[in-house]
Amino acid sequence: MTEDESNSESLMDRQTTGEDRVRMVARQLSEPRTVNWIASEADWSHEPTKRVLERLVDDGILHRDESGTHTTYYPDYRRQAMQEAMRLRDSGHTVEELTDRLANMKAQIRDWEDKFDVESPNQLRGTLTDETLNADEEDRRREIAREWEHLQRRIKIAGFAIREWDFLAPTTEPAEASS
Asked: Which parts form a coiled-coil structure per UniProt (predicted)?
């Protein structure tokens, strides 16, 4: 750990409460996670973490899934996508700049498809069975598969933001009340 990382962590510990850290972790979830996992990431104890997560469920920020062996929590992915689309719209970039970014993300995926002769991140992961790969190349392919999945999500959100550019424009007028 570098000195900067150490300083930023201690700064975060000093300036955030356990509840703040749980909320930050919960907002960044990309897959369902247990209370214990979230508590560990937030560096807070189990019971208060569970109380915060339950409040987030009550507020509609998170969903709870009790169908498996462990209860998991996951964000409302629609809400996350809408918020991210609004952030993209409000970022000060033009729709053309966002369109260029979208094209670059799609080109990156096409490059990986061509380079590895695969059509998906999981097919790329399947190439790890190749016994001629060294550990560094296996790690690199796993990282590319994760990045590929991330880009697929970003492409969907960027595409939505482009399609709904006008709708997502910030409004300065208060909404009219129905009479």
From this structure: 88-115
